[in-house]
Write a structure and sequence with these properties.
heterotetramer; A: alpha+beta; Aldehyde Oxidoreductase, domain 3; four-stranded antiparallel sheet; elongated; B: about 80 residues; alpha+beta; 3 helices; about 25% helix
Chain lengths: ~140, ~80, ~140, ~80
């Protein structure tokens, strides 16, 4: 379940999509828009854009890698694009597995790789009216 | 001639002033020639060449790759950070 | 935000309780009732009970330890008691921090320590009608 | 005499048949004496002694700890597993 779009992300819907009576551990990461940049500047909001087909292919590749590295695990990845306000969810990664260790490892791997590889860009809109493209970190 | 669709993202898009455009190049042209055509006269855009990756039909390629008619070239600034 | 009770756990409510414009990373662990015991026996449901005041004190101690180990982080921990069906959430741990590394580390530490230390017990109810107290693993 | 409230959990509760009960012990009794009173004649319950921890007023104590009137003793089977 891989998704990129402008609609608000509903983590519960992603979790429900992975529900399986054999899976006892579910780990969800939410990346939320902060009110400060890493350098301390006050942020009004973010703008995200993506090269969607490549980003979705990257999500699928990352999920397959996690499965291979950590064992049987299902992943849902959703990233929002467009203008976001402080406090909104920009990205969600859900990992479900029989046991929690696998779910934790897969979730963390997926968000780390997503940030590193997926063609998604973030522009910070500052309180003073300026804007700047930044590395897609959390 | 080959006609290709170009998609520009993030800083590249801002400097180019457009997200999506079409350009025509001579037969046998390489990816680098497409970039050079777009960056001609744009000093700040041209300066991004070393950091920009180009995807041809959804796959990252080198600037030496040959272009075919109908290709989609995506100009991708660096991603990732931590 | 530490809670033990018989009502269904709402992870979104826990997450909302930790929301802070300075926090960009939220990690939620959900422990869900599985349909099989570790030995493969089919499970109809679980029964949890706790020594509530000690368990709540343990939750608070674990959260304080996570804060000390991993840096500024807020934690919410909720555990359900009573009879649970397959697929229901038995335990939820939410960690919110400025950056995701801290949130992942704190969430995982908290659920590991909760399982190891909190006075909460689990009885498996098998499809064949038998029941057995088991270690409170996922 | 000291009167203490006893709370039993999980397997201990099942074997004892009660979750909550009150017992009276001689002045100066220790936690171990409370356990022995409850487990007297219950072979399967008595067998749990090495694995059970006892909390006195919410704090884990040894079987040698002295009991005071009005204490709450909680009998806690092992927790944890993975």
């Amino acid at each position: 379940m891989f998704r990129i779009g402008g609609a608000p992300i509903d983590p519960r819907e992603l979790e429900a999509g992975l529900a399986d009576p054999a899976y006892g551990g579910v780990v969800t990461f939410l990346g939320v828009v902060r009110d400060r940049a890493d350098d301390g500047r006050r942020v009004d909001g973010l703008h995200y854009e993506s090269y969607e087909p490549m980003a979705l292919a990257e999500f699928a590749a990352i999920a397959a890698e996690a499965h291979e590295r950590f064992g049987t695990v299902r992943l849902a990845i959703a990233h929002r694009v467009g203008d976001l306000q402080v406090g909104e969810i920009a990205v969600a990664v859900v990992a479900a597995a029989r046991h929690r260790g696998t779910a934790f490892d897969a979730c963390r791997y997926a968000i780390d790789e997503l940030k590193r590889r997926a063609p998604i860009w973030k522009k910070e809109r500052y309180a003073d009216g300026e804007q700047a493209w930044k590395a897609n970190a959390c | 001639m080959v006609r290709v669709r170009v998609l520009a993202f993030a800083a590249v898009r801002d400097l180019l002033g457009e997200h999506r455009l079409e350009i025509e190049l001579e037969d046998g042209s390489r990816v680098g020639a497409a970039w050079d055509r777009l960056a001609a006269g744009h000093e700040r855009l041209a300066a991004l060449r070393p950091s920009v990756r180009v995807a041809r039909n959804g796959r990252i390629v080198s600037f030496e790759e040959r272009i075919a008619d109908g290709d989609e070239l995506a100009l991708l600034p660096p991603v990732g950070g931590g």
